[in-house]
Amino acid sequence: MDGCPAGLKLDLDAIQKMVDRRRPGQSPLTTDRKETDRVEILSGILDGVTLGTPIGFIIRNKDQKPADYDALKNIYRPGHADFTWETKYGIRDHRGGGRASARETACRVVGGAIAMQFLKHFGVEVNAWTSTIGPVSLPEDTDLDYDLIYSNDVRTCNLKFAESMSRHILTVREAGDSCGGIVTGMVRNLPAGIGEPVFGKLPALLAKAMMGIHATKGFEMGSGFKSAAMRGSEHNDAPAILDGKPVVSTNHAGGTHGGISNGQDILFKVAFKPVSSIAIPQTALDKDGNAVELKIEGRHDPCVVPRAVPIVESMTALVLADLILMNKLSRI
Ligand SMILES: Cc1cc2nc3c(=O)[nH]c(=O)nc-3n(C[C@H](O)[C@H](O)[C@H](O)COP(=O)(O)O)c2cc1C
């Protein structure tokens, strides 16, 4: 991780705690792969304080089973990156997906956990939670308790819906299938004025960060795609006077205008597809172009959404930390 200012006192346990939230094998809703995911810091930190030099770290794989992937050596999994990767590079490590495996996101969460601690200095709080699993969604007007997010396996913030969301994942898992869902992200206490106009717009950088996470298929800010059906009179987040003070009670914009934060909460949603590695037999193509029947063995997530929650938080924190630093150059 490069670009972290010197002098940031880090809580190393908090970094590990955040990485643990992404770790596989924690609940019946995720892959059975068991990794300890211990973060070993190699450089850039002395006595818990950042040096301003690149922060190097390593997370060792402990529970890899390359033989599980032998059957996939000459077959392209439908919906996975096998074909595109091999077409681009002419060579592919078939033993687990390589960089197309979300194993890669463990590093993003280390970076995100450091960025979160940087953001704390500015009072900025980042949260994400599961808002949809398959057909089960939190209603728009439901109570949200952010302290509950990591208290339940599905990582939602209203326990009334946690059980039906979990049940759906277990049902598709039992059927050898997979399901998708939506993670909602929220940033509180971000001051107005953060975001670079033109090429570094806050929503544009967030979209890029989110769509760079594996298995994402959609991103929207505020009212997002629903905005297209609204009128300006409905969409404008205009102040109302409450107890003699102006308050803005709607947030259709998602907290930015012109790519710059407006002081409201940043609100966005990220859609995740159902993962492609399913146990149900499917037709796939092999390297010679023959259609073959494929039954994927090995350990896979039936739904990535619960594990994606800390990844979305991490990518959000990284984007905002960069933009807050860049904002220091915006005027004398
Ligand atoms: C947390 C997480 C866990 C994932 N686990 C799996 C998995 O177990 N099996 C699988 O086929 N894909 C899994 N994926 C999705 C693949 O990495 C992804 O579909 C693949 O790289 C192809 O990229 P694309 O779906 O973004 O096009 C996971 C994604 C995330 C974010």
In short:
The chain has helices spanning 12-22, 82-89, 105-120, 159-174, 202-211, 232-235, 305-327; strands spanning 39-43, 45-46, 49-50, 56-59, 75-76, 125-133, 136-137, 181-188, 216-221, 240-242, 245-247, 256-257, 260-261, 266-272, 282-286, 291-294. The protein is an alpha+beta fold and 332 residues long.
3D structure, described in words:
The relative contact order is 0.18. The protein is 27% helix and 20% strand. The chain is an alpha+beta fold and 332 residues long. The longest helix has 23 residues, at 305-327. α1 (12-22) crosses α3 (105-120), α1 packs across α7 and α5 runs antiparallel to α7. The protein has a single domain (12-327), classed as Chorismate synthase, AroC fold (4-Layer Sandwich). The chain has helices spanning 12-22, 82-89, 105-120, 159-174, 202-211, 232-235, 305-327, and strands at 39-43, 45-46, 49-50, 56-59, 75-76, 125-133, 136-137, 181-188, 216-221, 240-242, 245-247, 256-257, 260-261, 266-272, 282-286, 291-294. The strands form 6 sheets. It has a 5-stranded antiparallel β-sheet. A 3-stranded antiparallel β-sheet has the order 5-15-16, with no helix packed on it. The protein has a two-stranded antiparallel ribbon with strand order 1-4. It has 7 helices and 16 strands. Bound molecules: flavin mononucleotide (FMN). Flavin mononucleotide is lined by residues 31, 80-81, 100-102, 213-215, 273, 275-277, 300-301, 304, 307-308, 311.
